[in-house]
């Protein structure tokens, strides 16, 4: 018996399995024997594969695949982080790092400059959004097995040489890396003589401090009302979501609660300080990409009738993650609970634990939404995932067709083409027309509706199964007709979603000429959501009626 126990213990301590995670889980689940048994089986199988497989194996890759497979049936936020990813997460939280000063995205065998930040190294070297980096310090991006973006990182004042493609032409640049500060509040300004406008783009460690300072300065300039813009804010630190809410909501008020099957993760989060300004009229802007901490703030503002929420239903990311340390500097980020607003609404939109026949997470149907009451006035609000605004605008929505276009970079790539075909030196001259929108539709159609909808993917998967079962001759004609019908529907859907697509196209194009600061100034004048917020805040009767 003792030898068996020691054998199990030795297997559990194998670092590569992240046994600390499993042992801590065992204390909650009361199934130590089952966990130990499965670890032992897996360890033996892993050893046998590496020792006996017909071809040479890569032990690290095998384990990466095993970890990926284990997590794939859970939610997308429960993830394994390498040592580099752990460090990157810490940097994002601090809002400071060293690099070339640009948002860079991996796409196939190249790196794409998504957005160079004004006056940082990438911008000073002449790099522009849409440039495709193909070589970094002599290393071909296509030959690099890891994340090639890491090659752009390094100490301040060190140089990095890049080769990139711009509109098919190969170019070179030498950049000097520099310290980069990512502000939580990248912009604030007076929208009118009495209304201050604050953009909160992320919830890092500086979020509440920078938001408070921005509001303070705006009040000194005459602001008696505030617009807080959370559109596109993906979230961040829970503590900062509570602190930002606390700027407008009084002390000892519930901002969010978390619920879990594990008792110790059931918690309530209250405001800890007196509000910075508990009375100033407030409008909060959200859209389909406002998530997590953004939903905690907008949800608490709505549930306390503290301000008017404007835009479109938020993303619905109401799952709480906590990182757990593993061996060799790695971590596993585990979903431990769900967020709830003060009225009791669950923020989470997708149910990853009750999937449909195709294995997709289930979304709550509209007819199944539950009604809740706001804390102060007793207004009726509904769950269903995310925060549903008090005033809905089509320009802020993210429909499935728009999400597909964004996922396939159609809007980004069209903006790149547009930039090199048009010249602007005046911010206010950029006004996309119906002709521009029709040109975008034609451009998307010409490149073959490169984006794939969920429906299309499901049909393609079914057809592939039919081919394997040699049934394709019988259904080929029907399949082709169905896919053609989907193509026609895509074109119609894009036209139906003109407002939201035009809004996204305009934003992406404006950034190309006048950077993000220019975009914020442009939106102050032309954004439908900001203009609606100004109207509501200037109409006290309407404002009070919405909140009563």
TrEMBL record:
It holds the Pfam family CtpB_N-like. GO terms for biological process: proteolysis; signal transduction. Keywords: Hydrolase, Protease, Serine protease. The keyword Metal-binding does not apply. Gene3D superfamilies: 2-enoyl-CoA Hydratase, Chain A, domain 1 (3.90.226.10), 2.30.42.10, 3.30.750.44. GO terms for molecular function: endopeptidase activity; serine-type peptidase activity. Coiled coil: none annotated. The keyword Protease applies. SMART domains: PDZ, TSPc. One of its GO terms (cellular component) is outer membrane-bounded periplasmic space. Residues 85-166 form the PDZ domain. Belongs to the peptidase S41A family. This is Peptidase S41. It comes from Nonlabens agnitus.
């Amino acid at each position: 018996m003792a030898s068996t126990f020691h054998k199990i213990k030795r297997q559990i301590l194998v670092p590569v399995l992240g046994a600390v995670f499993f042992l801590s889980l065992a204390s909650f689940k009361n199934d130590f024997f089952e966990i130990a048994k499965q670890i032992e089986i897996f360890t033996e199988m892993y050893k046998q594969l590496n020792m006996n497989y017909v071809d040479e194996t890569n032990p690290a890759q095998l384990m990466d695949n095993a970890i990926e497979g284990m997590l794939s049936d859970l939610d997308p936020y429960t993830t394994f982080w390498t040592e580099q990813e752990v460090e990157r997460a810490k940097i994002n939280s601090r809002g400071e790092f060293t690099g070339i000063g640009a948002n860079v995205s991996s796409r196939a065998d190249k790196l794409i400059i998504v957005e160079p930040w004004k006056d940082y190294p990438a911008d000073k070297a002449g790099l522009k959004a849409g440039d495709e980096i193909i070589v970094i310090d002599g290393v071909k991006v296509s030959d690099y097995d890891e994340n090639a973006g890491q090659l752009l990182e390094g100490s301040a004042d060190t140089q990095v040489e890049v080769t990139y493609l711009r509109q098919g032409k190969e170019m070179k640049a030498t950049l000097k890396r520099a310290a980069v500060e990512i502000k939580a509040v990248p912009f604030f300004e007076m929208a009118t003589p009495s209304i201050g406008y604050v953009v909160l783009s992320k919830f890092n460690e500086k979020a509440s401090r920078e938001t408070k300072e921005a509001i303070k300065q705006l009040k000194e300039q005459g602001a008696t009302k505030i617009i807080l813009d959370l559109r596109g804010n993906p979230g961040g630190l829970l503590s900062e979501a509570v602190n930002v809410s606390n700027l407008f909501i009084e002390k000892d008020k519930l901002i969010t609660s978390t619920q879990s099957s594990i008792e110790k993760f059931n918690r309530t989060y209250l405001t800890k300080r007196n509000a910075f300004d508990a009375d100033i009229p407030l409008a909060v802007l959200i859209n389909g990409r406002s998530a997590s901490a953004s939903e905690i703030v907008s949800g608490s503002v709505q549930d306390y009738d503290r301000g008017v929420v404007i835009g479109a239903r938020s993303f619905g990311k109401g799952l709480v993650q906590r990182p757990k340390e593993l061996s060799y500097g790695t971590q596993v980020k585990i979903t431990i609970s769900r967020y709830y607003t003060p009225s009791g609404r669950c923020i989470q939109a997708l149910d990853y634990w009750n999937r449909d026949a195709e294995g997709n997470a289930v979304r709550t149907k509209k007819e199944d939404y539950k009604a809740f009451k706001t804390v102060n006035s007793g207004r009726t609000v509904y769950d269903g995932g995310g925060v549903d605004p008090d005033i809905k605008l089509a320009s802020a929505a993210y429909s499935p067709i728009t999400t597909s276009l964004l996922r396939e970079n159609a809007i980004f790539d069209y903006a790149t083409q547009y930039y090199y075909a048009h010249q602007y030196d005046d911010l206010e001259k950029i006004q996309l027309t119906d002709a521009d929108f029709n040109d975008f539709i034609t451009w998307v159609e010409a490149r073959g509706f490169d984006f794939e909808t969920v429906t299309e993917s499901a049909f393609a998967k079914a057809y592939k199964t039919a081919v394997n079962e040699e049934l394709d001759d019988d259904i080929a004609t029907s399949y082709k007709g169905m896919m053609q019908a989907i193509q026609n529907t895509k074109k119609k859907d894009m036209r139906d979603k003109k407002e939201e697509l035009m809004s996204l196209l305009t934003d992406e194009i404006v950034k190309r000429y006048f950077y993000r600061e220019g975009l914020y100034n442009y939106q102050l004048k032309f954004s439908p959501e900001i203009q609606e917020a100004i109207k509501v805040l200037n109409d006290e009767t309407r404002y009070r009626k919405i909140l009563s």
